[in-house]
């Protein structure tokens, strides 16, 4: 199978996993670009880090993945870009044939995504996470390593689900909410709220 050259925007820890996934998926012609001049000339998994993020995002011929961990920043970079965002799926995953995967979305090794689930654009399904049937994962959401979404869960835009968290069936999580690591969510979560604990409750304010 032939792949177009791929440009990964970002050169931090998240970029390492994106790069590893791209290689596992069959990409061989890959560039890393980042605006941080302190990183220019350094290497990530053997690849040099270059500048030119704005040029990359404005290039209509470029195939691009945003390796930016922060949800709001990732979506902000994507808005108005002229490049072609591609999705990456590690070969060591299970994704049912009925799953819809949006542009720029990455699915890392060991993940499971079950039937009739919809993954929006620029979603991160991290290592070993699972998303069960009929879920809706909004644009720019991030499901961290080892977290679990039961069936018919809805995540609105920009939701972060922390490592090892669990959401019971039919939960709805509002836009840009944060689910703490290891939390067990048994009630809907309001937009921009942060919930922690078992069962998950709003984080106390000091």
Q: Helices, strands, pairings?
A:
Blueprint: E1 6-9, H1 13-25, E2 30-33, E3 43-44, E4 47-50, H2 53-58, E5 63-66, H3 71-78, E6 84-85, E7 88-89, E8 94-95, E9 100-101, E10 106-107, E11 112-113, E12 118-119, E13 124-125, E14 130-131, E15 136-137, E16 142-143, E17 148-149, E18 154-155, E19 160-161, E20 166-167, E21 172-173, E22 178-179, E23 184-185, E24 194-196, E25 201-202
Task: Describe the structure concisely for a colleague.
This protein is α/β, with parallel strands linked by helices and 206 residues long. The chain has two domains: 6-85, Rossmann fold, CATH 3.40.50; 88-196, UDP N-Acetylglucosamine Acyltransferase, domain 1 (3 Solenoid), CATH 2.160.10.
> Can you name the CATH architecture of the largest domain?
3 Solenoid
Please count the helical segments.
Answer: 3
**Tally of extended strands?**
25
CATH overall fold name of the largest domain: UDP N-Acetylglucosamine Acyltransferase, domain 1
Alpha carbon gap, first and last residue: 55 Å
- Helix/sheet category: alpha/beta
Name of the top-level CATH class of the largest domain:
Mainly Beta
Order of helices and strands: EHEEEHEHEEEEEEEEEEEEEEEEEEEE
Oligomeric state of shown chains: single chain
CATH superfamily of the largest domain: Hexapeptide repeat proteins
What is the count of structural domains? 2
Uncertain segments are none
Estimated helix fraction: 10-25%
Mean pLDDT: 96
Radius of gyration over all CA atoms, rounded: 17 Å
């Amino acid at each position: 199978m032939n792949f177009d050259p791929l440009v990964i925007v970002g050169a931090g820890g998240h970029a390492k996993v994106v790069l590893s996934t791209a290689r596992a998926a069959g990409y061989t012609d890959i560039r890393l670009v980042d605006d941080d001049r302190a990183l220019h000339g350094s290497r990530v998994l053997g690849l040099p880090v270059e500048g030119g993020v704005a040029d990359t995002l404005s290039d209509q011929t470029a195939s691009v993945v945003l390796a930016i961990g922060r949800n709001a920043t990732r979506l902000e970079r994507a808005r108005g870009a002229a490049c072609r965002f591609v999705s990456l799926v590690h070969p060591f995953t299970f994704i049912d044939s009925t799953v819809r995967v949006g542009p720029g979305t990455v699915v890392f090794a060991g993940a499971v995504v079950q039937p009739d689930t919809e993954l929006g654009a620029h979603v991160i399904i991290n290592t070993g996470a699972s998303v069960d049937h009929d879920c809706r994962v909004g644009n720019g959401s991030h499901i961290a390593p080892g977290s679990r979404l039961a069936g018919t869960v809805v995540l609105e835009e920009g939701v972060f689900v922390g490592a090892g968290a669990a959401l019971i069936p039919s939960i709805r999580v509002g836009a840009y909410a944060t689910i703490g690591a290891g939390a067990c969510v048994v009630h809907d979560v309001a937009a921009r709220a942060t919930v922690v604990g078992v069962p998950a409750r709003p984080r106390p304010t000091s």
